[in-house]
Amino acid sequence: MTSAQSSPLQILQKTYGYTKFRGQQEEIIAHVIGGKNAFILMPTAAGKSLCYQIPALCRAGVGIIVSPLIALMQDQVDALRQLGIKAAAINSSMSPNHIRETEAKIRNGEIDMVYVAPERLLMEDFLDLLDGSKLALFAIDEAHCVSQWGHDFRPHYAQLSLLATRYPDIPRLALTATADAPTRKNIVNCLQLADGQTFIAGFDRPNIHYSIVIKDNAKQQILRFIKDNHAHDSGIVYCLSRAATEEMAEWLCEQGFKALPYHAGLSAEIRSRNQERFLREDKIIMVATIAFGMGIDKPDVRFVAHMTIPKNIEAYYQETGRAGRDGLPANALMVYGMGDAAMQRNFIESSTAPDNQKRIEHQKLNALLGLCEAAGCRRQIILDYFGDTGTPCGNCDTCLAPPETFDGTVAAQKALSCVYRTDQRFGVGYLIDVLLGKDDERIRQFQHDKTSTFGIGADTGKPEWQSIFRQLVAKNLLMVDIEGHGGLSLTPQGQAFLKEKKTILLRKYTGKIKLRRGASSGAAEDFEGDPSLLTALKTTRLTLAKAQNVPPYVIFHDKTLREMATARPETLAALARLHGMGEKKMERYGKIFLDAIAQHGAAAGG
Ligand code: ADP
Ligand code: ZN
Fold first, then answer.
1. How many A from CA of 16 to the centre of ligand 1?
2. CA angle at 222 for the pair 230 and 560, rounded to the nearest 5°
């Protein structure tokens, strides 16, 4: 490349086709070009990749990018090649011949960037190659894999500590989107980054709309949501079990969608085929367990739906974070019910983790239930959980339709004493029957029609009581038993609440929460261009992508096509001004898309 003479800004504009740097990009890039180390903690889609790609282009030598997933490397390389960058990957899926050729190119300084897994990098042969080559930098992507505390620990990542001793003069960057305080410390120690600088950006993903609704019929609720908002989009539906995954995928297909299952019980071959289709075709819905998602950087995932609650807020944020990487509006919907909480408790209890770990996981689950039952802004609660502060966002269900609250002190007292008087072992259904004073065989049998709480809740309806119980669990006054039978008992906070006669504000029950048709979709609402032209452009893109066997977004992101369908450029100069129109892409595709726009105009104009 001629990049040796180009400034970072020129590369951003000419090669990538973007107008200006985002956030701390410019600062980080200058820092690394200056030969210094850096630790970068930024949310998904913030634009971390440019922080090592541009320095790798500006500094002499090859940039070594350590990345955990071989399966996704080729797509990353393809995307860079489309920009005219000399990128390569070396991994076990390649032929020895191909590897030898690539290695020769690295030695001769003919490669700008090479992607490798840590296992490869640590091989003596590969280290020899590095010893004999000019190196621009080391970028360690998904750096949380270094840490035992992180959620994806990889022992080979920890051995990357040798980079600091073997190549002390080559800058090292560690990048991740998820690392709490102990994980951060591990990364900085292991990779010896203490002398470098830490760059941390806020956690917010403003383009994702969050909504959490009470489970009524999860399948139907999710179907409605997809039909109303995402009938032509790619998305992910998370399920708890393998069986649920397959059943939901099949059912969505019967409803006319292209849905594929993904879980750890499928053969590696089927999994990789389904993943590939998700990445390469339009409008695929991946119905998956949490086994799916790590490292997936498909930019145009428009929605993530949860059929049941996830494990905790971190998991929820990571899973929903897979939506809207391209910065365009995206939706996260969670459908939750009380049974889900019992099931998650059961998982925690039946694991082999030590007791203190289990206690922490129960607390994390409580925080998630608090989020589900919140009357305030969802985003504020999430960001607060990560130590970030913010104001009500205006882009979540509770901000857009604030739930009414009421003084729930008396209701809570009644519910809690009912739990207490019936010996803290019955589920919600039974407790509500007692509160309502129902004539019931079982109640008589246990003589609960003789307790002081029998019938004291007859002034309130059953769904209202269900909502109250859910909130008391979410507020940690009641606890669902860990055997998973759904029996409720008082927590220490619940006992204190009764004893100290505290007051409490609860969310008013308002019946089924309606999903807002269209308006919540975000995906289509802010697009002012010609939808039929957009469809035509997507078809052109898909044809080009198929011919080269690359994912469509590697050719152009949706954002670029939307700008085309809105601005309808008639000249190459006008086209070149659009987002993502780098020089190489103009050269390769400029004319093709200009023709497609003109043709569509002629056809539409009659
Ligand atoms: P991350 O690695 O932080 O998850 P990426 O590096 O993949 O995020 O960037 C997310 C998206 O934003 C990509 O499509 C990328 O090309 C785009 N992007 C990054 N920096 C800029 C910028 N300065 N201007 C416009 N788009 C950008
Ligand atoms: Zn909000």
1. 10
2. 20
Say if residues 265 and 234 touch (Cβ distance below 8 Å): no
- Same domain for 378 and 265? yes
Tokens read off for 562: 């939307």
Residues 35 and 123 in one domain: yes
Half-sphere exposure (Cβ direction) of 28: Cα atoms closer than 13 Å: 29
* Domain-embedded: residue 170: yes
In degrees rounded to 5, what are phi and psi of residue 95? -75, 150
* pTM score: 0.83
Which ligand lies nearest to the CA atom of residue 79 in the structure? 1
Ligand 1 center to 183 CA (angstroms): 24
Lowest-confidence segment of 317-321, 473-477, 498-502 by average pLDDT: 473-477
Pick from 588, 552, 558: which is nearest to 572 by CA? 588
**pLDDT tens digit string along 369-422?**
889 988 889 999 998 887 777 889 999 999 998 888 899 999 999 999 999 999
Model confidence at 497: pLDDT above 60: yes
**Are 12 and 143 part of one and the same domain?**
yes
The number of the ligand nearest the C-alpha atom of 143 reads: 1
**Residue 481 belongs to domain spanning:** 405-507
| pLDDT at residue 512 in the model | 55
CATH of the domain at 262: 3.40.50.300
What 3-state class would DSSP assign to 301? strand
